Amino acid sequence: MGQKGSSGLFRAVSAFGVVGFVRFLEGYYIVLITKRRKMADIGGHAIYKIEDTNMIYIPNDSVRVTHPDEARYLRIFQNVDLSSNFYFSYSYDLSHSLQYNLTVLRMPLEMLKSETTQNRQESFDIFEDEGLITQGGSG
């Protein structure tokens, strides 16, 4: 299963990333990316497709309290095919559009800071015009 290192620890699995954690009735599992394929480069940032994942039960098996429905939940979860159309990047934010990312990348740091400050200054109290009392106000 694993390789023994000089420290006496065993390597259970090698992974390219963590998809996340999931909890069923018996405890938590970690979902790892075990196989990836480079699909593209966007501005020097590598974009990968998840090819395979591995789900590992986190607590030690010796403390596991078995539940009759655990296997059913595992099967249902494993029916989600993470190897079809799931992409990731170590350095590029895939949750935003290309246009947004390019705009942010080209914007000087000072401009980003002033924009954040300006947005805070433009905030307003929605109850101000209604004559309602707000926290710290007597309006």
Q: How would you describe this structure to a colleague?
A:
- It is a single chain.
- The protein is of the alpha+beta class.
- The protein has one domain.
- About 20% of the residues lie in helices and about 30% in strands.
- The chain is built from three helices and six strands; from the N terminus they run βββββαβαα.
- The chain has a four-stranded antiparallel sheet with strand order 3-4-5-6, with no helix packed on it. It has a two-stranded antiparallel ribbon with strand order 1-2.
- A hairpin with a 4-residue loop joins strand 3 and strand 4.
- The N and C termini lie far apart (about 70 Å).
- Keywords: Hydrolase, Membrane, Transmembrane, Transmembrane helix.
- One of its GO terms (cellular component) is endomembrane system.
- This is FIG4 phosphoinositide 5-phosphatase.
Please name the defining characteristics of this protein:
139 residues, alpha+beta, 4-stranded antiparallel sheet, two-stranded antiparallel sheet, 3 helices, 6 strands, elongated
| Helix and strand composition category | alpha+beta
Give the total of beta strands.
6
* Helical stretch tally: 3
3D shape: elongated
Average pLDDT rating: 78
What count of structural domains?
1
Transmembrane segments: 12-32
Keywords: Hydrolase, Membrane, Transmembrane, Transmembrane helix
GO cellular component, one term: endomembrane system
Subcellular location: Endomembrane system
